[in-house]
Design brief:
Blueprint (H helix, E strand, L loop, with lengths): L3 E5 L9 E10 L11 E9 L1 E2 L2 H10 L11 E2 L3 H18 L3 H16 L7 E11 L2 E14 H11 L3 E2 L4 E2 L15 H8 L10 E7 L55 E2 L2 E2 H18 L11 H19 L1 H16 L7 E2 L2 H5 L5 H13 L4 E8 L6 E5 L3 E5 L5 H11 L3 E4 L4 E4 L20 E2 L9 H5 L2 E5 L2 E5 L1 H10 L24 H4 E2 L11 E8 L7 H22 L6 E5 L3 H31 L9 H4 L2 H24 L4 E2 H28 L8 H30 L5 H37 L24 H13 L2 H22 L17 H12 L2 E9 L8 H5 L12 H9 L2 H4 L1 E3 L4 H9 L30 E3 L8 E12 L4 H23 L10 E4 L3 H4 L1 H27 L4 H25 L5 H27 L5 H30 L6 H33 L5 H24 L24
Parallel strand pairs: 7-10, 13-25
Antiparallel strand pairs: 1-6, 2-3, 4-5, 6-7, 8-9, 11-12, 14-23, 14-24, 15-16, 17-18, 19-23, 20-21, 22-23, 26-29, 26-30, 27-29, 28-29
Helix pairs in contact: 1-2, 2-3, 3-4, 6-23, 7-20, 7-21, 8-18, 8-21, 16-18, 16-19, 16-34, 18-19, 18-21, 19-20, 19-21, 19-33, 19-34, 20-21, 20-31, 20-33, 21-33, 22-34, 23-32, 23-35, 31-32, 31-33, 32-33, 32-35, 33-34, 33-35, 34-35
Keywords: Cholesterol metabolism, Disulfide bond, Glycoprotein, Lipid metabolism, Membrane, Signal, Steroid metabolism, Sterol metabolism, Transmembrane, Transmembrane helix, Transport
Catalytic activity: cholesterol(in) = cholesterol(out)
GO molecular function: cholesterol binding
């Protein structure tokens, strides 16, 4: 029986040495739902009691700051009060114990209020209550004022405000400041919460008055605000406890120099340094050109004679047995191509772009081996644009602004949507749902739906509609209001690891699968942690990443496809209240494969356009009646088939030996070989058409002679390109390496088939044409005979008469050199500013739903991908030094692993680290602490809900090598998870990888210095994107290496095949270098990034440049015209016309068609880049090179001149002798038949 009568204390006396209350009176009947019994003291104005024995020892234990020695210590609290105070302080210290000085300051204040011998000088009792217990009426204190100096209060608050709670990841002050949380908490608000009897801990109301120094107004007489010494968080406590850690106390942090800022741009005199150097280089080159004095060197004919005679004999032999050669070529090609039955097409981006022995790949394999592969992500980002928000006046958190998307009806709609996905699985032979494939970290062996890792806002309510609808009236600071889902949401986004909120709803913030949902994974589009104003909801399903040969992998793909189907159907439904973007783990690969399949017709049209052009352009049209005779449709088709067969043979051969192919090989290699092959076809056919059969020469001998003239040039180009690509296979990038191998063999096979099958086809076509038979209808003949003179067509006369004279005019030559030097130097300057990388959205086709997803991702995500700092074996975590090197609580090394990551997050713009790593070592230490109430129960297994002793290791989450005797021996791997900042571009992803590796290396060195640590111990960063972006750390040097390897054989082969003509080789090399450099310069201007795809095209550019350049160089070197200018004119007209028709006009129509492709990769790296390569190759090969040769080309090869003069004289003599012996009436349309008006010469001997 208890009767309570509240009273107001009218007056009180305040004297040193006196108590205001003493001993416990009983429970406070006005306080309900307290965590501890709300025992209140009895009003008792009396002198402080002297303490001794057990009473003294208890005070010394609980309030050591009041100890004055046994026999000299007085206090105003009984043993019962000390025990109650001890229990209350233990609960509060549980969240403050990481910082001993903070915990000491907290206890200091409450010891002064409860036990100070001068109690009446610091407190003023304001309310009492008569309590009748067991028939005894006692006056109990239910409210008082406590006066503190602001110096003590502020310093105490400062020592505690940064103390963290490892279990929640938040600040301890957030749980001790009521509605204000950690962000808005002040000293006054902190003390107000401590003095509020409704907070679950305070047994009575305490009105804390914080009084600045020197202020006396409003203070009762005799009261002196308590101004004891509060400890700084960087001070040891009087009992010897260490200073607080850096993570809990900014003042404890050592002076860490800020990371160096990004390097300043290279300047000279305040101007772009690269620009200055390029201008100087430009001036030097132009000056050197103006001062140039030509010089000559000797050339050798031996190589040309050897090659020419060899190809002449070979061509004659093949042309004499065309059907046998075609059959043999078909058999060899078929033998190679049968390997296609075993072809393996690589579509996995990891295998495509990351070498198995690369650092990122090995680190990924290590992580996946010890922690399983990174889970598969399926995500939706939902917005509700135009939906009005509202203000909510929260009892606990004050007035809050809620955006339109943070609304109960939308959250319920989201909850309904995330429960929809299930389907019939043929692989499992039953209905399958999320639980069959989901990532379930706390119950991986037999998960239920509630064990699946689904991160979304409804998880703050455990995906329960009842929890979301829950409401309750609550009283706070004397105000009673209704609290609902909004109060719970506000609390949970600030304390996501809490198992119970501070509202009377008493709901957990943890997701139903037992893990926290961090706010940046549930909402997006907010500023400064204003989560209620978020503009987007985020829903993420995490699936297990099974090996591709696991049956569950197919089920995961089915689930993701069902997810996409449902989401797309939902997006089209009229009742959908959201505007959203979405993706599945399979989406990237699906969209790339889809667009590849959709763009195959574009490539087919491109090849068809090239074929039509070749078939039409190869024909020699002399009259309308002979169109079907002179056309080269079948020859053009044969040339295309030769290209196709060379590609099939290359792919089949590599399939035989187990080198996988890829989609980029299927797209690029045929295009490349077609460009190379078409050029050789044009040169060969045009040379044959422009040549006249010599007297007495058989058709087969003529084909052999023409082949002997042009085959060395064809060999020069093909061999240069093939060796170039074979050397390019030294690349470490799998995609570049496989492309180079396939291209090298395809180019080589193309040359071999041109020397065999195509020569045989031309022989058969020449036989048909000589017989005046129509193409496609060989039985039909025409009566119109072929003209006697060789057909030069339109292009050769035009270039000889107009183009070459204008180009090689003295003024034009100077202009051309100056312009091209300017282009070259400008491109060198622009090279320094080309963007390195490949933004992932470029891999998507236009109109792809993934483009919208990337837009939402960059707009609404506030943090980036998680990154793990993984440790290998060789570090002793069980030693004190080992634990101190990895923890971040009191007593830990200020430069521990987690502390260094913490320091990095203080400079997010430089480190790309947003959220520091939580340390499982801190959690372990917290778990071991007897005062901690955390993690003491089994969560799974037969002992679920029972106490879990520290000696138990079966349920630990770190990888252990277990022994039958001891629980813990060697840790094979551990990891500490942090988060990157929101990364949007390749440049940012690459920089984040570079900085993370530097940080991990620094951590590795410091941890290796700890005694007992293995010297091969390592810490490395890992996240799922590193394996893709590692290539950009070295792609510039890798590209320079590959392109240099490609350029080297072009110089060597050119020199060798031109008879050690070093000057021609050097000019050839210079022009190809200029084409390559200018290509990179234009890439900068046209927004084409430099990456592995671009590198493949640049290697291709070297090959195509050889076609534009080498034929022209050889033609000039073999010319016997008297001056450099005349030789350049001849080479431009004869070979230039063939190159223009065979390379430029073959490539351009096909390239233009690619502009209509849907895939952005094809538009940018195949249309744009190949267009640039072709135009620049044509400009340098047909404009710059002839002018360059006219200035710097080699002199007339005297050996060639003498040999040609001898051959000409011999030819004239033979012709004259033949005239005297017989009339040549066959091939020349009988033009040389005897004229009835002229006598026939008689032979003479």
């Amino acid at each position: 029986m208890c009767v309570c009568l509240p009273q107001v204390v009218l007056e009180a006396r305040h004297e040193p040495g006196y108590c205001a209350f003493y001993e416990e009176c009983g429970r406070n009947p006005t306080v309900a739902g307290s965590l501890l019994p709300p025992i209140i003291p009895c009003l008792n104005y009396s002198r402080a009691r002297a303490l001794e024995g057990e009473h003294y020892q208890q005070l010394k234990k609980v309030c050591p700051m009041l100890d004055r020695g046994e026999g000299s210590t007085t206090a105003c609290c009984s043993i019962k009060q000390l025990k109650s105070l001890e229990m209350s302080l233990m609960l509060s210290k549980a969240v403050l114990m990481r910082c001993p000085s903070c915990a000491d300051n907290f206890a200091h204040l409450h010891c002064i209020n409860t036990c100070s011998p001068d109690q009446t000088t610091t407190i003023n009792v304001t309310r009492t209550m008569n309590i009748t217990t067991l028939g005894i009426v006692k006056e109990a204190v239910v409210g008082y004022q406590a006066y503190l100096s602001t110096s003590f209060a502020d310093k105490s608050f400062e020592s505690c405000k940064n103390v963290r709670i490892p279990a929640t990841g938040g600040y301890a002050i957030a749980t001790m400041c009521g509605r204000y949380g950690s962000a808005l908490c002040t000293a006054q608000r902190w003390y107000d919460f401590q003095g509020d009897s409704s907070n679950g801990l305070a047994p009575l109301d305490i009105d804390f008055r914080l009084i600045p120094e020197g202020v006396t107004e409003g203070i009762p007489d005799g009261v002196v605000p308590y101004a004891g010494r509060a400890l700084g968080c960087n001070e040891m406590t009087p009992t010897g406890a260490e200073v607080c850690s850096c993570q809990d106390c900014q003042a404890s942090c050592p002076v860490v120099p800020s990371p160096p800022p990004p390097a300043e741009p290279f300047t000279i005199g305040g101007v772009d340094g690269y620009l200055v150097l390029c201008v100087i280089f430009l001036c030097v080159l132009i000056l050197a050109f103006l001062l140039f004095v030509t010089c000559t060197d000797k050339n050798s004919l031996a190589t040309q004679e050897f090659l020419g005679s060899g190809f002449r004999a070979w061509g004659t032999l093949v042309a004499s047995h065309p059907l046998k050669v075609l059959l043999a070529s078909a058999v060899v090609t078929a033998a190679f191509a049968t390997g296609l039955m075993h072809i393996e097409l690589t579509t996995d981006p990891v295998q495509l772009w990351s070498a198995p022995n690369s650092r990122a790949r090995m680190e990924k394999d290590f992580h996946d081996k010890h922690f399983d592969p990174f889970f598969r992500t399926n995500q939706m980002i939902l917005t509700a644009p135009g939906r009005p928000g509202h203000f909510y006046d929260s009892l606990l958190f004050g007035k809050q602004n809620f955006s339109g998307i943070i609304a109960k009806d939308l959250i319920l709609e989201l909850l309904k949507l995330q429960k929809k996905i299930q389907f019939w699985s043929n692989d499992l032979n039953r209905m399958a749902s999320l639980k069959d494939v989901c990532f379930a970290p706390l119950n991986p062996s037999n998960p239920s739906l509630t064990d699946c890792a689904v991160n979304s806002l409804p998880q703050y309510f455990q995906n329960s509609v009842d929890n979301l609808n829950a409401k309750v009236n609550m009283t706070e600071l004397g105000v009673t209001k209704e609290v609902d889902w909004r109060d719970h949401f506000i609390y949970c986004v600030n304390s996501p690891l809490s198992f119970k909120d501070i509202t009377d709803l008493q709901l957990s913030c943890m997701a139903d699968y037992g893990a926290p949902v961090f706010p940046f994974l549930a909402v997006g589009g907010y500023e400064n942690e204003g989560y209620t104003t978020a503009e987007a909801l985020i829903l993420t399903f995490s699936l297990n990443n099974y090996p591709r040969d696991n049956v569950k992998f197919k089920v995961a793909l089915e689930w993701e496809q069902r997810f996409l189907d449902i989401v797309q159907e939902y997006q089209k439904s009229p009742g959908n209240p959201f505007t959203f973007a979405y993706m599945a783990e399979r989406s990237l690969e699906d969209e790339i494969n889809r667009t590849t399949a959709e763009d195959i017709p574009i490539f087919m049209i491109s090849y068809a356009v090239i074929f039509v052009y070749i078939a039409v352009a190869l024909g020699e049209y002399t009259s309308f009646s002979r169109i079907l005779v002179d056309s080269k449709f079948l020859v053009g088709l044969g040339g295309i088939l030769v290209v196709g067969c060379s590609v099939l043979a290359s792919m089949g051969f590599y399939a035989w030996i187990g080198i996988p192919s890829s989609l980029i090989i299927l797209q690029v290699v045929p295009f490349l070989v077609l460009a190379v092959g078409a050029d050789n076809i044009f040169i060969f056919v045009l040379e044959y058409q422009r040549d006249a059969r010599r007297p007495g020469e058989k058709r087969e001998e003529r084909i052999g002679r023409v082949l002997g003239n042009v085959a060395p040039s064809m060999l020069l180009c093909s061999l240069s390109e093939s060796v170039c690509f074979f050397l390019g296979a030294l690349s470490t990038m799998p995609a570049v390496k496989s492309f180079a191998l396939y291209a090298a063999l395809a180019v080589l096979m193309d040359f071999v088939l041109q020397m065999t099958a195509f020569v045989a086809l031309l022989s058969l076509d020449a036989r048909r044409q000589d017989g005046n038979r129509c193409e496609l209808a060989c039985c039909v003949s025409v009566k119109t005979t072929a003209p006697s003179k060789p057909n030069e067509g339109f292009l050769l006369p035009a270039m000889r008469k107009y183009y070459a004279p204008v180009l090689l005019h003295p003024v034009t030559r100077v202009i051309v050199i100056v312009v091209f030097i300017f282009m070259f130097i400008s491109s060198i300057y622009l090279m320094f500013y080309v963007t390195v990388g490949l933004d992932q959205e470029l891999a998507m086709p236009q109109g792809s739903y993934m483009l919208e997803y990337f837009k939402y991702l960059y707009a609404y995500f506030e943090v980036g991908v998680p990154t793990y700092f993984v440790t290998t074996k060789g570090f002793n975590f069980t030693s004190i030094a080992g634990m101190n090197a990895t923890c971040s609580s009191v007593g830990c090394d200020p430069f521990s692993l987690t502390q260094k990551i913490q320091y990095a997050t203080e400079y997010p713009d430089l480190s790309y680290m947003a959220i520091p790593a939580n340390s499982w070592v801190d959690d372990f230490i917290d778990w071991l602490n007897p005062g901690s109430k955390c993690c003491r129960l089994y969560s799974i297994g037969p002992n679920k809900g029972k106490f879990c002793p520290a000696s138990e290791c079966e349920y630990q989450t770190i990888k252990l090598r277990k022994s039958k005797v001891t629980c813990v021996s060697v840790l094979l791997a551990t990891r500490f998870m942090a988060y990157h900042t929101a990364l949007t571009t390749s440049k940012e992803f690459t920089a984040a990888l570079k900085i993370a590796r530097e940080l991990a290396h620094n951590i590795t060195l410091s941890m290796r210095s700890i005694p007992g640590t293995s010297q091969d111990f390592e810490v490395f960063p890992y996240t799922v994107t590193y394996v893709f972006y590692e290539q950009y750390l070295t792609i510039v040097s890798e590209g320079l290496f590959n392109i240099s390897l490609c350029l080297l054989p072009t110089f060597v082969v050119c020199c060798l095949l031109l008879g050690m003509d070093l000057r021609s080789g050097a000019l050839n090399l210079l022009t190809i270098i200029m084409i390559t450099v200018d290509t990179v310069g234009v890439m900068t201007l046209w927004g084409i990034d430099y990456n592995a795809v671009a590198l493949i095209n640049l290697v291709t550019a070297v090959g195509i440049s050889v076609e534009f350049v080498s034929h022209m160089t050889r033609s000039f070197a073999m010319s016997i015209q008297p001056t450099h200018v005349e030789r350049a004119k001849e080479a431009t007209a004869t070979m230039g016309s063939a190159v223009f028709a065979g390379v430029a006009m073959t490539n351009l129509p096909g390239i233009v068609v690619l502009a209509f492709a849907k895939a952005q990769l094809i538009q940018i790296f195949f249309f744009r880049l190949n267009l640039v390569i072709t135009l620049l190759g044509m400009a340098h090969g047909l404009i710059f090179l002839p002018v360059l040769l006219s200035y710097f080309g080699p002199g007339v090869n005297k050996a060639v001149l003498l040999r040609l003069q001898q051959a000409k004289a011999q030819e004239l003599e033979l012709s004259s002798n033949a005239k005297n012996i017989y009339d040549n009436i066959g091939y020349e349309n009988q033009e040389n038949s005897p004229n009835p008006h002229h006598p026939v010469r008689t032979p003479h001997h």
